[in-house]
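Data card: per-record layout.
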Amino acid sequence: DAEACALRAGFRDRLFPVVFGFVNDLKHFRSRAPDFFRLLPGELTGVYTSKSFDDGLSGRFDGSDFELCEAELVFQTSNSPDKVAFRGVILSLILSRPFAGRLFGTSRIGGVAKWVRDTFQANGLVEIASGNKVLDDAYEFRTSNPDAAGPLLTGPLQRAFEFALENWGGKAIRLGLVDDRCFLLLPTEQG
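The structure for this 191-residue chain is written out next.
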């Protein structure tokens, strides 16, 4: 109802600046695709036929523009029940130092992984290892630039994926670096 929506909006308008005081130019949006969505690579989303969005935020943190939103991507066919390809939070961050090419880290488990592998082979991406057996068993890393991706996978990205394995409740994150963009998909449930 309109009164409840107005109450929630007023609460958000007072609470967000306090909670997110470290973010410059903070803006809230609801029920619309974020601006970055058209740039989001299929290697991260998998195949979907419908999409919906809930709350989203955009702003600037530590000199970098970002946007994040709650999203659900669903694959629908007429012969089977809908399958959630992704449900969770998607973050897009503009990198201060662009990555020269494309790098993706996705789960090796499930139907999306097979689709991702097929897509990667068609896109000329090559698989590389992080050097961490547990991580390499859980995730598949593919890139168009192995020389630039290697140091990232043995350094900062390896630590990020290790943290996700230990702390994200068994849900596989998806990460992509594409030129000056970093995309991070944090599932709230397995898709």
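Known properties of this structure: The chain has six helices and nine strands. Residues 12 and 28 are 9 Å apart (CA to CA).

See the next section for split statistics.
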